[in-house]
Amino acid sequence: MKMIALRGRVFPTDLNHAGTVFGGWIMGKMDKAASIAVEDIIFSPAVTVAVSDMKFIKPIHNGAIFTIYTEIIHIGRTSIKVDVDVQIKSRETREEFSATKAVFTFVVVDAKSKPKDVREVIRYNVDDYVKEML
């Protein structure tokens, strides 16, 4: 199920020399949003181990309002994959459009940073679609 994980506005300090957001800046926001989605389903630390299918679809400009949607798309033995979609609200039409997308993979870890089984740390009240992936 797609959920809103993070919202915000782009400011001049977030821009590169071309007047659009730095790729690393938006990627950092996406990583934060994905980590929130992971924390919603487990009660253990998890670390980002991979980012795949990163697509910069449309430029993001100063003043843009962004909403980052996340969806858990896969749960492995120790890993969780999160689909992340950055949507920008058009100033003219107020409709949202995708600007950047990626899949973030997290690994659940214990206190010694060793991989840990997701099933040992799953929250009891997760949505049914998450339970179906276990």
Structure, described:
The chain has a single domain, classed as Thiol Ester Dehydrase, Chain A (Roll). A hairpin with a 3-residue loop joins β3 and β4. 17% of the residues lie in helices and 40% in strands. It has helices spanning 23-41, 128-131, and strands at residues 3-9, 46-56, 65-75, 79-89, 96-108. The protein has 2 helices and 5 strands, in the order βαββββα. The mean pLDDT is 95.
What is the C-alpha radius of gyration, as a whole number of Å? 16 Å
Overall strand count: 5
Low-confidence parts: none
Termini separation comes to 15 Å
Query: What class do helices, strands and sheet pairing give?
Result: alpha+beta
How many strands, what sense, and barrel or not for the largest sheet? 5 strands, antiparallel
Strand order of the largest sheet: 1-3-4-5-2
**Which class in CATH terms?**
Alpha Beta
The residue-averaged pLDDT reads 95
Individual helix count: 2
H/E element order: EHEEEEH
Instruction: Count up the domains.
Output: 1
Overall 3D geometry?
Answer: elongated
Q: How much helix, percentage-wise, in residues?
A: 10-25%
Beta-strand percentage range:
35-45%
Might you state the CATH topology name? Thiol Ester Dehydrase, Chain A
Q: Topology of this protein?
A:
Elements: E1 3-9, H1 23-41, E2 46-56, E3 65-75, E4 79-89, E5 96-108, H2 128-131
Antiparallel strand pairs: 1-3, 2-5, 3-4, 4-5
Give structural attributes.
Thiol Ester Dehydrase, Chain A, 5-stranded antiparallel sheet, about 130 residues, alpha+beta
